From TrEMBL:
PANTHER family: PENTATRICOPEPTIDE REPEAT-CONTAINING PROTEIN. Gene3D superfamilies: Tetratricopeptide repeat domain (1.25.40.10). The keyword Nucleus does not apply. InterPro entries: PPR_At4g14850-like_plant, PPR_rpt, TPR-like_helical_dom_sf. One of its GO terms (molecular function) is RNA binding. NCBIfam families: PPR. This is Pentatricopeptide repeat-containing protein. GO terms for biological process: RNA modification.
Length: 80
């Protein structure tokens, strides 16, 4: 999970625009590592780029927020 986040960061730095698969993997890594702040950062950054309606990304977000005990955010993502 740490390697996945490291690679995702490098990809972002090099100008890579992620797709739903790479976002789902990065958010799932945050979930496994309980990296709430990094997960929120990813969520904020890419929600505005059309990924807020992607069911795989949203599922990963709900899982991450739930595991990090942010139940209100998990509910908000689920309901939207």
């Amino acid at each position: 999970a740490e390697k996945a986040l490291e690679l995702f960061g490098k990809m972002e730095s090099s100008g890579f625009e992620p797709n739903s698969v790479s976002l789902t993997v990065a958010i799932s890594a945050c979930s496994r590592l309980l990296c709430l702040e990094r997960g929120k950062e990813i969520h904020r950054k890419y929600a505005k780029k059309g990924f807020e309606s992607d069911e795989y990304v949203n599922s990963a977000l709900v899982d991450m927020y739930g595991k990090c005990e942010c139940l209100e955010m998990a509910r908000e993502v689920f309901q939207n």
